[in-house]
Amino acid sequence: MTELEKELKVEDIKAAAGQMGCPVQKALYFVTEFLAGPMCGRCFPCAMGSYEARIRLGSLVAGSGSEDDLLALRRISADMVEASFCKKGKDTGKFILDWLDTGVYQEHVAGRCPDRKCAAMIEYRIVPGKCISCGECKDVCKDLAIHGEKKKPHKSGYLPFEIRQKRCTRCGNCIKVCPVEAIVLVDAKATVGAGA
């Protein structure tokens, strides 16, 4: 592969990463694809730093990140910007570093994804006071994560609809079909009352 082809691939990775909503997911995608393709591995800060950065970013996306991960990411990305031999390594470090001071990484450590894109930090919930028990959500749920009974005329005592979080894959199909907007996307740590 020529140097020009590698540079084009780095630009393609940046463009694809830019399509993602969450900056931490953007950084994780960029580093993962950088490791899989254009990284040459000839300099220590880039080779070792990229691997460690991928692990730390993965922890943040999975909801298990810590302040130690943030400190490590700052050190790794600063070292890559300063000491990588080529522009590709420096750009990778800068890509991570650009988002560190925005607060979005810190939000992930606190268990919140501000863009609500990281599946480990969000939940779909049914607001009981809004739900009309039509069953549209249950019909489209490919993961069988929604339980409850459709409302039938002249019957009472049916089970209200609820989303079983351990089965839910956060695909969003249920929220799209709900005719009364009774399904809401919330931070996993939040609680939703009947009036939400």
**CATH T-level topology of the largest domain:** de novo design (two linked rop proteins)
Are there runs of 5+ residues with pLDDT below 50, and where? Answer: 192-196
**Got a strand count?**
4
Derived from helix and strand composition plus strand pairing, the structural class reads: mainly alpha
Q: What is the domain tally?
A: 2
Element-by-element helix/strand order: HHHHHHEHEEHE
Strand order of the largest sheet: 1-4
Mean pLDDT: 86
Number of helices: 8
- Spatial extent as radius of gyration: 22 Å
Strand residues, percent? 5-15%
Proportion of helical residues: 40-55%
Which labels suit this protein?
196 residues; mainly alpha; Alpha-Beta Plaits; two-stranded antiparallel sheet; 8 helices; 48% helix; disordered C terminus
Structural features, described:
By secondary structure, the chain is mainly α. The chain has two domains: 3-109, de novo design (two linked rop proteins) (Up-down Bundle), CATH 1.20.1440; 119-187, Alpha-Beta Plaits, CATH 3.30.70. The chain has eight helices and four strands. It has helices spanning 3-18, 23-36, 44-61, 67-83, 87-100, 104-109, 136-140, 173-177, and strands at residues 122-126, 146-147, 162-163, 183-187. A two-stranded antiparallel sheet has the order 1-4. Helix 1 runs antiparallel to helix 2 and helix 4 (67-83) runs antiparallel to helix 5 (87-100). The chain is elongated.
